[in-house]
Amino acid sequence: MFCQNLQYLDISQNNFTGIISPHFLQTHSSLTYLKFGENSFSGSLPPEVGKLIHLADFNVSHNQLAGGIPISLADSSDLENLYMQSNFFQGTIPPNLASLKSIQQLDLSRNNLTGSIPKELEKLQFLRYLDLSYNDIEGEVPNTGVFSNASQISLIGNNKLCGGIPELEFPPCPLIKGKNRGKLKVIILLSIVLPATLLVLVFLLLPNNNMSRNKISEYGMGLVASTQGDVYSYGILLLEMITGRRPTDDIFVGDLDLHNYVNGALHERVPEILDPLLLLEGDENRNMTPGGETINGGREIDCIISLLKFGLKCSARLPNDRMHMNEAVRKLHLIKDVFLGVRVHQENFEA
Length: 351
Prior knowledge:
The protein is α/β, with parallel strands linked by helices. The chain has 2 domains: 8-168, Ribonuclease Inhibitor (Leucine-rich repeat, LRR (right-handed beta-alpha superhelix), Alpha-Beta Horseshoe); 178-340, Transferase(Phosphotransferase), domain 1 (Orthogonal Bundle), CATH 1.10.510. The protein contains 8 helices and 14 strands. It starts with 7 loop residues before the first strand and ends in an 11-residue tail after the last helix.
């Protein structure tokens, strides 16, 4: 099917099965209304949906779609109504959905979404209906924007939420002072990363280390087990920990993998790719830029960026471009010392 100037397509309430064709989405960028609801479409929602730059109304509700919500949806900047309820979508709600400045109705209910509610959604001034009910969302509920009116939002069925306006009747959130929360999370991250690195290093230095090398695989790169392979796996693991993404997530198609995903956001969009649990409500880090005027002089975000650069260096595609494990340990200690204020920026954070 190819209609170059197709603008309106409604095939809802049928018995269509199979996947939503990426090719169809890519070749029908003129669409403004697209309704696939109440069918039996399965698979993931292709990232090519972002090619529909004129799309105003998009409905894929009541299907069997799974995988993550494509971050490319934010490229459909004219969206006014987005209905994705009653599917099997999983993962976190992309914070960049806040770039849908014209969005009026957003329904993501009855899926398997996890993580926190992106605080950025508070900024959507035309959003008048938001339904996130019956997922597994957790953390603090924002309290401004659409979240300030209980009649415009539905959050029921998410038993791990807290805070928000009193009308929502969620329990109070555990009290952690905002000025210490970001620092605490980064310290916890470093506390996990450093011992793990040292453990790998010990394995590598043992006279008989074949078992450790076999256990630390190279994520299907097909290369012979080696210290460079161990470093690669460690780098990917670190990127997973910071972003909350796995190399097998559905958003990674074609040339886009976890390494490129992080590398492309490193300089200007770091908060967009971080695991939402690192940026819970109240964190000064949420909209931070490197070196920003925040608690600890911006050390939290600088530390996270340094860890991302470290993970990228370890997971370079060519083995000879990767960092050696003993150098990795030294770099991690440097990052920790600078973050805690034990050492000033005597050498570049970059790996």
